[in-house]
Amino acid sequence: MAARNLTAVTEFILIGFPNHAGLEALFFILLLFAYLISVVGNIAIIFLTRVDPHLDTPMYFLLANLSFLDICYISVTVPKMLVSLVAKKRSITYVGCMAQLFFIIFLEGGECFLLAIMAVDRYLAICNPLRYNIIMNRGACSVLVLGALLAGSAHSLLHTLLICWLPFCRTNEINHFFCDIPPLLKLSCSSIYVNEVVLYAVSGVFVGLGPLLFIFLSYVCIISAILRMRSVEGRHKIFSTCTSHLLVVALFYGTGSFTYVRPATSYAMDHDKQVSLLYNVLTPLLNPIIYSLRNSEVKRALRNTLRRFCVQT
């Protein structure tokens, strides 16, 4: 308990980009534009999967849930960043910081598991099509999504509790845009060994490599099945759908692994927070664009919806 008494911090100061004074207006416009496009794009995906009967399938049910997570994910960080740029109020309460941390890790973990579920869904649809509708019914999909969210919340709760236990007695200035694990570990004046072990063992292996292994094995089977197909049109359709998912996986895991899966002592925050910004803003922004541009069914649903809207007006 003695170590716990060292934590006298009641609020944190989010530094953001200290070396770019005078560019707040530009950053605000860019962030606001990215946020609005991301939210509108993901809402459009959710809307299309609800109104178009051709998208009433397990694949698009999972895609709609991915879009919902992306909306929540970008909304946890960007609005606070926009307020900081406009109001010059860069402080965040200790409780607010821990809450933001919890939801960031929760949504990241949930998305990791959901991407794995989406890969397994594609494997079943392509490699076991006769039993696909029986296995991936709406009830099973709902249970899988709920399981992904529960696993993400348990993972997040573990990290948040460990961060809450750390004493922050050096400074209350976070060299970042939001409360995240690496910059908070930098502020602790006690050993962060347990935090790093959990970060590698739980986040790196269970939440990171575990779902990634399912994705890899699923696509090994999918690619094998595609190569055995004689229909060129069938190959192209399946490859187009799978490519969209693989691009999202590569974007999510590529920036995420660079952000988290390294020792805290190797973090160069001025550089890493730029990568983290891309991870938190670019991924939710590009996901609906990737699925819209590379998916013929989504493009067809969008055209049909716009056509019906124009006829009604």
Largest sheet: 3 strands, mixed
What's the shape? globular
Tell me the number of strands: 3
- CATH class descriptor: Mainly Alpha
Helix-and-strand structural type: mainly alpha
Report Rg: 21 Å
Ends apart, CA distance between termini:
66 Å
Looking at CATH, the homologous superfamily is: Rhodopsin 7-helix transmembrane proteins
Report the average pLDDT across residues. Answer: 84
- DSSP helical segment count: 10
Question: Do you know the CATH architecture?
Answer: Up-down Bundle
Report the order of strands and helices: EHHEHHHEHHHHH
Helix content: over 70%
Q: What share of the residues does DSSP label as strand, in percent?
A: under 5%
Low-pLDDT runs: 1-7
Largest sheet, spatial ordering of strands: 2-1-3
Number of domains: 1
Q: Could you name the CATH topology?
A: Rhopdopsin 7-helix transmembrane proteins
Can you describe what's shown?
- This protein is mostly helical.
- The protein has one domain (4-312): Rhodopsin 7-helix transmembrane proteins (Rhopdopsin 7-helix transmembrane proteins, Up-down Bundle).
- It has helices spanning 24-51, 58-87, 94-127, 129-135, 138-165, 181-187, 193-227, 232-260, 269-293, 296-312; strands spanning 11-14, 91-93, 173-174.
- A 3-stranded mixed sheet has the order 2-1-3.
- Helix 3 (94-127) runs parallel beside helix 7 and helix 8 runs antiparallel to helix 9.
- It is globular.
- The N and C termini lie far apart (66 Å).
- The relative contact order is 0.14.
- Mean pLDDT is 84; it is low at 1-7.
